[in-house]
Specification:
The structure is a homodimer. Chain A has about 200 residues and is of the alpha+beta class. Chain A has 3 helices and 10 strands. Chain A has a 6-stranded antiparallel beta sheet, with helices on one face. A 4-stranded antiparallel beta sheet of chain A has the order 2-9-4-7, with helices on one face. The longest helix of chain A is centred in the middle third of the chain and has 11 residues, at about 110-120. The two termini of chain A are about 15 Å apart. The interface of A and B includes residues 55, 68, 71, 93 and 127 of A.
């Protein structure tokens, strides 16, 4: 089990076939999830290619997330949560918090990703559009987006399988200005399962 | 006027304040549009940052498209079209056509972008999620996406203003397998206006 404290991120290398679970430990928490091809990190999970591949805003269980070269990289195997996830919104970043009126430094998913990837040996990366597990961004009439609290309960999880060798990063989203984490960011975890 | 033949792309440098119109010359045609910051092309229009910035799937007239650093790069000034545009789907690319069963080479918006940027002096670029003007991708129940014909008439256009010095590329989407261009890709144009 890889515990990810509130507002932090962790990365791990997983082999093709490896299954893992992303767990919302206390509930009501968004987990920004990223996947890079292990032997060439210029290939990574791509939200815009995945939407076109599955013809929906987010894959259903049994469907893959694909890379910017349209190859499956993760399979959404099982969803033990309310099934509400987002793949429309960028990772939060320093500019996001400045725009929200925060003065000084604020933890962010982009910095968590960069730190985790540096820990895996990669100092320069593209920042992909994340898979925002448990994030509740309803698409309303005329394409308007809501920013709603994550409806997950403690222990809710999503099980993914790596389709190729890859680097996975998960960030316990530090957003505490808009209510997506119920204004109380908390811990998440990655549980590595049998392949 | 910069004429863009069917299935091709063109790039142009525009100064901050410059206004330009993207025109669907014959109607029923998607125009994939990209914007890079002129003095650092690692900053470019970002669909996922723009959605978060305007809290909707696509900006309305008067709203900006922002970069991956959340700075306005283009302003959507006027929409003389049915107002149906997409910012969910990746640019078509060789892998897209292979996946659709095409054998051999097929023109694509990604290659059009790369060729236009090479012509502006940049051989290596990131491929951003495009602004797919006139593209009709309805979001249905449960987040399912449709792939519908562009509903534009000849001469329909969108007027944009550059907020910073930037490189603009427009591709007349060559997609002729799915019906987004009414299975008959046609020409588009960029008209540079007074600033």
């Amino acid at each position: 089990m890889i515990d990810i404290p509130a507002r932090e991120g962790r990365g791990v290398r997983v082999a093709a076939g490896q299954r893992f679970r992303v767990i919302d430990v206390e509930g009501g928490q968004v987990a920004d999830t990223f996947a890079f091809r292990a032997d060439d990190i210029s290939e990574y999970h791509s939200a815009e290619h995945t939407r076109a591949y599955v013809s929906r805003l987010f894959p259903q269980p049994g469907e893959p997330f694909v890379t910017n070269h349209r190859r499956p990289i993760l399979l959404l195997e099982e969803d033990r949560s309310p099934g509400i996830h987002d793949m429309l919104c960028a990772a939060c970043d320093p500019e996001r918090y400045t725009g929200l009126g925060v003065e000084g430094w604020h933890a962010s998913c982009r910095e968590n990703l960069e730190r985790a990837m540096a820990g895996l040996g990669f100092d320069r990366i593209e920042v992909p559009q994340p898979i925002n597990l448990f994030m509740n961004i309803p698409v309303r009439d005329e394409g308007e987006l809501g920013w709603e609290p994550a409806p997950t309960k403690p222990g809710d999880s999503v099980t993914l399988q790596a389709v190729m060798d890859c680097l996975i990063v998960v960030s316990a989203c530090p957003q505490d200005i808009v209510p997506i984490n119920n204004k109380d960011p908390s811990a998440v975890a990655i549980e590595l399962l049998d392949a």
